[in-house]
Amino acid sequence: MVNATEGAKEQTQSGIGLSDAQLSQPRRRMLDLVNRLHSTGVQVDIDLPQIAVIGSQSAGKSSLIESISGITLPRAAGTCTRCPTECRLSRSDSPWQCKVSLRFITDKNGQLLGQVRNEAFGPVIYNKAEVEERIKRAQRAILNPSRPRKQFLDGDDNNSRLTELSFSNNCVSLQISGPDVADLSFCDLPGLIASVSSSGGHANDIALVEGLVTSYIKKPSCIILLTVTCETDFENQGAHRLAKQYDPEGRRTIGVLTKPDRIPEGEQNHWLPFIRNEREPLDNNWYCVKQPSSSDIKQNITWDEARKREDDYFSMTPPWNELDTIYLKYLRTRNLVERLSSVLSDLIAKRLPEIQEELDRSIIKVREILGSLPRPPSTDPVNEVANLLYEFAADLHRHVDGVPGENGILQCIRPAQDKFRRTIRDTAPQFMPFERRRADGKVLQPPTFLEGDDDIGVVNNQVYGRALVVARKMANTDEAEGSVPVPAQAQETEPSSSTAKKRTHEETVEDSNTGNIYVDEVFARAHKARTRELPGSYPFTVQKTFIIDVVKQWKDPALIYLQNVQTFMLAHTKELVSKHFSEFGQGLLEQRVRAIVHNHLKECFKRAEQRVLWVLEMEEHPFTVNYHYLSEYKSKFLAYYKSARDKETRGEVTSQIESFVSQPTVSAAGPQQPTTPGNPKLAKKPRPAASFGSPEEPEEPNGIAKVLAGLTEMGIVGIKPQDLYRILPPDEMEPAINIMADVRAYCQVAYKRFSDNVPQAVDHELVRGVERDILKTLCMKLGTSGPLSERICAELAQESPQVADKRLDLMKKLERLQSATVELMEIEL
Predict the structure, then answer these.
(1) Within the chain, what is the greatest distance between any pair of CA atoms?
(2) Same domain for 81 and 171?
(3) In angstroms, rounded to a whole number, what is the distance separating the alpha carbons of residues 288 and 339?
(4) DSSP code of residue 496
(5) In the chain, % of residues over pLDDT 90
(6) Do 351 and 221 meet the contact criterion of CB atoms below 8 Å apart?
(7) Listed residue (114, 92, 94) closest to 35, CA to CA
(8) Whether the predicted pLDDT of 84 surpasses 60
(9) Where is the GED domain (predicted)?
């Protein structure tokens, strides 16, 4: 080995590697900055400039490192090649010193640590002769991670061959400083191996070492110092293949040929094309160095003597001494170190602004991730849980009262309310004021007086009595949206139109579910219901049976509406629970609150269901005190049905009356004017004025005008054309028409009442009911207000280990990034 002690005095004159004067002060400060950045461990997070020394085993890497650093590395049992050895060289005005530390990237199980851990391994070394032994012990400590570090630092080294690991990602870090030390940093990586011996090692060692080397050289800011021994064919050395894989253009690779004195006779010229950069060209060229031989090491020659012998070798040994002058700068260790230092310095100068940007982006990203994590556990979990419960209850109350926006609870319920109201409205009986035998092809137009009465649309007689059909459609839509299933009794099949057409005239269809109800069928039912009534009188039970038939159809739509509202409430309360509790603890509080709210909602549903059934039970007995609306609707429906029937049974008379009324002159003359028995001429229909030059004959009055005139002559005045219906013979179906008007008027009043009462009951018991006493219910069932509240709240606030580990890793990473930012701020580019 090189005699470090004897060479110590000579170093003060010759220096180690690059002379200090060759580096400008700003460049030196940048090199120092990168070393400090490495001390923060930020190289785990960003790409820092670094030199990685790679090569196959026995490629001469150790000798090269010794010639650059001026220290002696351990060689026994190949220990130095089994873990990375980082050398950080820096010039200092203080006396020469070396600090040995262990850098742990992974734990004893090989898992990555959240933050790089640096541990000093022994006191500072001031005597170079002590470095070799300290490094050997440090490497053994790295390869035995489960054993105490102190055991390797102070204990004996009898079992140096026995290690827990054959290779490790953790490294030994050497911080060497002194007056004549080169400003350079590099990392000596384990040599690539081609096979594992049967006496030692593990089957995965080859992949482990290659993966370790790859983790360094794949970074864009890593300068690859590729060592290739000249005693083995170039093609057989895998380090070049790996370097070319990650630096295919050779921009950041510096090649070094070692052991030129061991080139087989006659093969020296095979290596000269590398020096001339003709073979496997690199941007920074290939170099060749000559390190001390085995005999030189045994003689303990000094570092300066080793450099002198290297100079003599290249000066006197062909074919090296025959190279053109321009290629001589690629020979010798000193030239290599100068080039390494220059390349590293240039890379640092280029990368520093980029590093600052990367740090800024990384800090922002880490803070964003930290912000997205659940809140850290509180030091006062009781108050925090209480605040969360209170805020949830207040937010639930606000949503139940109504919030703007299309996704609010009330906004989601409103379409179901409209659908329910339409469904109930469409159960109205479809009375037809015609006999069934004369009904073919006849269409009853919808009553126009209901157009403004029903704000949810015009009532169409074609959908009257379709409650179950509409309910089924309503249920199918809701099921498709994930709502509660519809009761089986609401799944009945609607009779098809073709089936309805096949019914014979003799079939009596009185159920409003299946179609029209004709006036003769109403009359037949009324006649059958008579008991002791006087002739022409019919019992109220006729109207009642029709009304009950309608009310029976209201149950399924009401329950479907209730179930739909429950579905909406389940979805909204679940969303609110997640909003308030998802980021608290491990999710235990959210889970429990969701279960409590769900059960509370089920109880509210039961109460609402009882209310709906109670409302339905009341509707089974016809009742109203809204006499005004009932009377108004009856008169309108009575006129509506009579008018339609009169057009059918008394079509000619009706058409004459309507034609007479539609004449514009009628309203201004005839019977509408004041008349007296002494002035019968006023009853005559006025004659339009003749056109100029074309006199007309007086127009003969028609039948309606004659009747009105005759009544006027008899002294009966104030008669309108429409009043003539009263002098017509009575309609035998008039009692049935009156029953139809009664039933239809009541259904109109009852449907409005029922379509209000059910949503109101559901709103009171289910929608508003869910927030009623919710805070008290939560506190009681969670136990947060009892004697065990502190223990319960502490359990609820406990954070997930995964989240805790992630937060800790992010906090450590943020600390590293911020420390690196502080270091960068101290240098002026």
Answers:
(1) 163
(2) yes
(3) 13
(4) P
(5) 41
(6) yes
(7) 92
(8) yes
(9) 736-829
Structure tokens of 658?
Answer: 């309507």
Say whether 109 sits in a helix, a strand or coil: coil
Answer yes or no: do 419 and 274 share one domain.
Answer: no
Q: Which of 290, 288, 293 is nearest to 274 (CA)?
A: 288
pLDDT 10s digits, 123-158: 999 998 899 889 999 999 999 988 888 888 887 765
Using alpha carbons only, give the angle 476, 481, 485 rounded to the nearest 5 degrees: 50
What's the CATH number where 577 sits?
1.20.120
Measure the CA–CA gap between 736 and 732, rounded to whole angstroms. 9
Rounded distance, CA 589 to CA 388, Å?
10
User: What tokens does 655 get?
Assistant: 């058409």
Do the beta carbons of residue 121 and residue 149 sit within 8 Å? yes
Place of tokens 């090199």: 31
Nearest to 123 by CA among 99, 139, 103, 104: 99
Which of 268, 243, 245 is CA-nearest to residue 253?
A: 243
- Write the DSSP string, 353-407: HHHHHHHHHHHHHHHHHHHHSPPPPPS-HHHHHHHHHHHHHHHHHHHHH--SSTT
**Per-residue tokens: 137:** 């012990």
How far apart CA 121 and CA 104 sit, in angstroms, is 12
**DSSP conformational letter for 107:** -
At 192, list the tokens: 């690539």
Phi, psi of 171 (to 5 degrees): -130, 160
Q: Could you tell me if residue 814 is left (phi over 0), alpha (psi between -120 and 50 degrees) or otherwise beta?
A: alpha
Which tokens is 18 given? Answer: 């690059």
How far is Cα 86 from Cα 173, in angstroms, rounded to an integer?
5
Q: Is residue 773 left, alpha or beta, with left meaning phi > 0 and alpha meaning psi from -120 to 50?
A: left
Q: Residue 76: give its domain's CATH number.
A: 3.40.50.300
Amino acid at 545: T
Supply 395's token pair: 């937010």
Asked whether the beta carbons of 72 and 4 are under 8 A apart, the reply is: yes
Assess if residue 805 is contained within a domain: no
Q: Are residues 471 and 592 in the same domain?
A: yes
CA gap 824, 348 in Å, rounded: 12
**Contact predicate 794/788, CB 8 Å:** no
CA–CA distance, 542 with 525 (Å, rounded to integer): 7
Same domain for 151 and 169, yes or no, is yes
CA angle 157, 162, 166 (to 5 degrees): 125
Q: What is the DSSP code (8-state) at residue 258?
A: E
| 395 and 421, same domain (yes or no) | yes
**572 and 658: one domain?**
no
Q: Return the amino acid letter for 187.
A: C
Q: For residues 151 and 147, what is the distance between their CA atoms, to the nearest angstrom?
A: 7
User: How much is the pTM?
Assistant: 0.57
Q: Shortest CA distance to 687 belongs to which of 708, 710, 711, 663? A: 663
Provide the residue range defining the domain that includes 319.
8-364
Q: For the chain, what percent of residues have pLDDT higher than 70?
A: 81
* 619's tokens: 């509707």
Residue 370 lies in a domain: no
Claim to verify: residue 259 and residue 354 sit in the same structural domain: yes
Cβ atoms of 363 and 355 within 8 Å: the answer is no
Residue among 636, 441, 528 nearest 520 (CA): 528
- Position 715 in a domain: yes
Question: Contact at 8 Å (CB) between 169 and 212?
Answer: yes
Q: How confident is the model at residue 311 (pLDDT cuts 50, 70, 90)?
A: very high
202: confidence class by pLDDT, cuts 50, 70, 90: low
Sorted by sequence, the CB contacts under 8 Å of residue 354 that are 6+ apart come out as: none
137 within 8 A of 126, measured Cβ to Cβ: no
Closest C-alpha to 187, from 300, 274, 69 = 69
CA torsion through residues 778, 783, 789, 791, sign:
negative
Residue 796 within a domain: no
- Say yes or no: 527 and 612 in one domain: yes
- Tell me the C-alpha distance between 139 and 173, whole Å: 10
